Amino acid sequence: MNKLYSILIVDDLEIHRENLRNQLSTISNQIDSIFEVNNVKGAIEILMNEQIDLVFLDVEMPEKTGFDLLKLIPPERLLFEVIFVTAYDRYAIQAIRNSALDFILKPVQQNELKEALERFATKRNANLETFNHKLLHLINSKEIPVTSSRVGLPTLHGYLFVNEEDVIQCEADNTYTVFHLLNGKKIVVSKTLKECEQILNIKDFFRVHHSHLVNLNYIREYVRGEGGHVTLLNNQIVPVSRAKKLNFLAVIKKI
């Protein structure tokens, strides 16, 4: 790892922040700076004003959780990797759904922290996203069925893995595509809408318009018209083109 990077530690307990900071300083000499805050509000302020590469994020904190933090950051500022650090393994699936790079249980073990940093370095330098085997093992050990289909979305910084069932809609933006997720998050993907249509499950998604691909499972209402429009569960209204109308009606009648 050649390039220095900056870290933000978000944890409401000072002893946990201090322990993590000391271990990080021992493990890596590539850290340029370490910021620390004890709440989500302070974390947002730093993430909006500083160039942070990696966030160590606690889940349970006063007022707002670590998951709330990710929802409150504008999509254009979601340029950092996240490693959740918590005392509760029940948050593992949620961590996956929030595209976490890793998930570490407290008390933090130095070998696990080192492995997480190595994973971060690999992704950062090679611009690749890898599956978190530790998380998958944790889920399997709790006998939680993993039934969701995951797809890798190419972004400006590498690949982001999401569950297809979390995608409400894909919207064309010139040569890019904006993925709208259930949690309100938006992901800009460096592929055209046509290319994105090919990597998603065709049985669950329908191209209702040249600029819109929708998840059929999240259609709340269809309103007739020349082409008409659909209202999705996130209350977004999406037009249905006249050319797509007949095929679309035939599909939704089978749902």
Structural notes for this entry:
The chain has 255 residues and is an alpha/beta fold. Helix content is 31%, strand content 30%. It has a five-stranded parallel sheet, sandwiched between helices. It has a five-stranded antiparallel sheet with strand order 10-9-8-12-11, with helices on one face. A three-stranded antiparallel sheet has the order 13-14-15, with no helix packed on it. A hairpin with a 4-residue loop joins strand 9 and strand 10.
Q: Rg to the nearest angstrom?
A: 20 Å
What is the arithmetic mean of pLDDT?
83
Overall spatial form: elongated
**SSE order:** EHEHEHEHEHHEEEEEHEEEEEH
Distance between the termini: 51 Å
SS summary, helix count:
8
Low-pLDDT runs: 127-148
Largest sheet: 5 strands, parallel
Strand content: 25-35%
Q: What share of the residues lie within helices?
A: 25-40%
How many runs of DSSP E, i.e. beta strands?
Answer: 15
What is the structural class? alpha/beta
Placed side by side, the strands forming the largest sheet appear as 2-1-3-4-5
Structural descriptors:
elongated; 31% helix; 5-stranded antiparallel β-sheet; 8 helices; single chain; 30% strand
